[in-house]
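Practice problem 4.
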């Protein structure tokens, strides 16, 4: 499945926010936009459209979603009653790859996406290899029994890393069984900080 594989450092510097932990580290070292003029470059005044586009790009890159799929997710959110922007972020949070990341089974969303793609994850006992699968309240997400014998997952358990991991309140983590349960829908504060979802709504409402 298609995914962004370009430089996260340049994107983070251009958007002014770390789209991954690596992007955040690069941004901390070079907190200015990429380009030959470096920190001496003059910042242009950004139009309303530019601000809206920037917020959409932030969410896209942070959650690892390409344009067509992001638009479909927005359209799904727009069909629901309530606050469109908040439901958009809820849908992004409930993507299976993001849930695997939030549970601590992977250190990045890209790694979580790979674990899902390779068939290591089950939802309610059924192998699910679609990263964009939307989880629901009550569903159990776990590492496939056959995959738990792999070195990566054995180390994850033996190291005790999951015991120290703090999952968000809408997920209940069971470290011993390499599983987690969706106990509620994610709230706005559970989503990535630094995203102005209202600007994304305005972008697609032009």
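Answer key:
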């Amino acid at each position: 499945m298609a995914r962004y594989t370009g430089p996260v450092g340049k994107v983070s510097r251009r958007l002014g926010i770390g789209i991954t932990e690596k992007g955040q580290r690069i941004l901390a070292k070079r907190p200015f936009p990429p380009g030959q003029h470096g920190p001496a470059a003059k910042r242009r005044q950004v139009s309303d459209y530019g601000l809206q586009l920037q917020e959409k790009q932030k969410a896209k890159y942070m959650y690892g979603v390409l344009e067509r799929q992001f638009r479909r997710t927005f359209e799904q959110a727009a069909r629901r009653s309530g606050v469109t922007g908040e439901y958009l972020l809820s849908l992004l949070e409930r993507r299976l790859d993001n849930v695997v990341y939030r549970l601590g089974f992977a250190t990045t969303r890209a790694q979580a996406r790979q674990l899902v793609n390779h068939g290591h994850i089950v939802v309610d006992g059924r192998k699910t290899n679609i990263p964009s699968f939307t989880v629901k309240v009550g569903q159990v997400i776990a590492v496939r029994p056959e995959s738990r014998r792999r070195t990566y997952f054995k180390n994850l358990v033996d190291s005790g890393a999951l015991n120290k991991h703090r999952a968000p309140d809408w997920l209940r983590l069971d470290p011993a069984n390499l599983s987690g349960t969706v106990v509620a829908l994610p709230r706005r504060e559970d989503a990535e900080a630094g995203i102005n979802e209202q600007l994304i709504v305005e972008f697609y409402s032009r």
